[in-house]
From TrEMBL, chain A:
InterPro entries xref list: 4_helix_cytokine-like_core (IPR009079), Ciliary_neurotrophic_fac_CNTF (IPR000151)
Nucleotide-binding recorded as keyword: no
Listed name of the protein: Ciliary neurotrophic factor
Annotated GO MF terms: ciliary neurotrophic factor receptor binding; cytokine activity; growth factor activity
Residue segments, region Disordered: 176-195
Gene name linked to the record: Cntf
Cellular localization per UniProt: Cytoplasm
Function text: CNTF is a survival factor for various neuronal cell types. Seems to prevent the degeneration of motor axons after axotomy.
Native source organism of the sequence: Thinocorus orbignyianus
Family: Belongs to the CNTF family.
A single BP term in Gene Ontology: negative regulation of neuron apoptotic process
Pfam families: CNTF
Biased composition range(s): Low complexity: 181-195
Primary location recorded for the protein, binned into one broad class: cytoplasm
GO CC field: axon; cytoplasm; extracellular space
TrEMBL record, chain B:
GO MF assignments: ciliary neurotrophic factor receptor activity; interleukin-11 binding; interleukin-11 receptor activity
Transmembrane feature ranges: 310-333
Species in which this protein is naturally found: Thinocorus orbignyianus
Entries under PROSITE patterns matching the protein: FN3 (PS50853), HEMATOPO_REC_L_F3 (PS01354), IG_LIKE (PS50835)
Coiled coil (UniProt feature): none
Protein name in UniProt: Ciliary neurotrophic factor receptor subunit alpha
Topological relation to the membrane, as annotated: Lipid-anchor; GPI-anchor
Amino acid sequence: MAAADSPSAALRRRDLCSRGIRLAGKMRSDVIDLLDTYVERQGLDASASVAAVEGVPVAAVERWDEQTGTQRLLENLAAYRAFRVLLAQMLEEHREQLGEADTALGRALAAVLLQVSAFAYHLEELLQLESRGPPSEEGSVPPPVPHLGLFERKLRGLGVLRELAQWAIRSTRDLRQLAKPSPGSSSAPGWTESP
Amino acid sequence: DSHIQYERVGADVTMKCGSMDWDAAVTWTANGTDIDESHLNGSYLILKNVDLTQSGQYSCYEGSSWHLKYQTYLRVGTPPKEPVLMCRSNNYPKGFYCSWHLPTPTYIPNSFNISVIHGTKEMVCEKDVYPKNRCHIRYLQLFSTVKYKVTLTVTNALGKNSTTLTFDEVAIVKPDPPESVVAKPVPNNPRRLEVSWQNPSSWPDPESFPLKFFLRYRPLILDQWQHVELSDGTSHTITDAYAGKEYIIQVAAKDNDIGTWSDWSVAVHATPWTEEPKHLTTEVQITETTSASTSSFMPPPTTKICDKGAVVGSGAVAVCWTAGLVLAAYGVLFI
């Protein structure tokens, strides 16, 4: 495995970051469309306030500009792995509700789920460039599905998608930070463990 | 004792002469001028349906001794109407500012209080020095889905009013317009204009938060704008300019991912490069003018009006050029 600061690793990192930025942009655009479909099909008010949803990774972060590259990647990866599970749960619930009917909402959910999985994999590749590699998912238990009524589930779904849209913006910003050329050495800033 | 008294426009005001009895003989003045007795009820001064012009210093003097018994400064005004509040982030991701004003003046001093709440957290909005009605907030968190709630309360001696704005972090992002817009002709290219600009200096980190740009341009003689959206770079070459026409050009900016477009930049004017006119002399010059870079809109140099053997003199040459330009304009209009 190439050392983190070798020229080929730097090139690969930049390439992965650019592609990641494009993936995140497309994902965000699709999540926004999904949000519109979701709100419409679930009969919700688009401006409804949703309290913080349990088990949903929150994109909000303090001192974002001080984060190291590793922190950014780890937080992003943890988030998208969680969204992968959450979206799969939403899709499952949707199918339970409507049977195997191939609805526009079902298809949109499935498409975003695919992009979330792809993005998580992309983040794992970026972490591979570090000697650490990505944390393993083995043994991690998916969060239990809370027992909620139908309307509460719909609101929860709204919260999940809104937070995902926010993450997609954050990921774009994070990847741009990562792609920044370093001031002196050939290694990008913030790739070291310590801030 | 002198003090200030605030009253609403249209109110009826009764002023007592300090501790003097109702039936005491007194003289009232307004800004030094005696007030007619018809406005008095005993020693009380009655001002009915006051208007703004009645603001001023009112003094009451004891009848015989002319001792000053009471003085007040009357300020006639109105309670505040609902203030107009606006919040905007032109320096994302550093923070945002809110600014406000009253739709109509109150004519008396007002104080403003602003509160900014993010979820359950109250944030500090640092006020600009008076009389600027503006305050600044630093973002403590980024990428939050929790909305910000800004409440502005305006208070004066006659009442109070307030307004509230609720928004999320990205909705208020609007950069300042691009700066230092420059448009230059390109030598030997009659249809090109090179435009360049800079990121607004208020945008703190264009590398991590890149801006995209919108360019619009039109010849002065036409109303319709051409538009170009540019996802990166701070320059662009217009390649379809009408030869010889003066252009007006503006640029706007927007964060690549969030928020709204800035206002248009200051307009710049430029005219594409044109070939230098041939040297004007009093002798007939028989020249076959050909130019490889001449656009298709330029008429051939010889026209019916300007035969090669035409009358010499700068006046005639001027007619030739004018005719040439007229025909060029026609050519432009018939594209």
